[in-house]
Amino acid sequence: METETKGTGFIPRELMADSDAVIEHVFSRKPLDPEVYRRVRARAEQITEEIRQGHGILDVAVHLVRETRDEE
After folding, report:
1. Residue 4: pLDDT above 70?
2. In angstroms, rounded to a whole number, what is the distance separating the alpha carbons of residues 28 and 57?
3. Alpha helices in the chain (DSSP H)
């Protein structure tokens, strides 16, 4: 996979192209290519699983909401 320099590291061209497509979709409301959506979703699921494997399931919000309710 070819790469290009962005910021301080190397970002794969496909990742940059997908990011650009998502940004364009958000601002212009043009339909997002289903293949781009599939790749972005797959990367998000992979990252989520890596975090889950490294840190377990984090239930921070539930604790904070309950703590806030108890203070009232």
Report:
1. no
2. 36
3. 13-28, 34-55, 60-71
Average pLDDT, the chain: 86
Q: Which phi and psi (to 5°) does residue 68 adopt?
A: -65, -40
* 36 touches 14 (CB < 8 A): no
- State the CB neighbour count (10 A cutoff) for residue 31: 8
**pLDDT tens-digit series, residues 22-65:** 999 999 999 999 999 999 999 999 999 999 999 888 777 888 88
pTM of the prediction?
Answer: 0.64
- Euclidean distance between CA atoms 14 and 36, whole angstroms: 9
Taking Cα atoms as reference points, which of 34, 5, 35, 36 lies closest to residue 20? 36
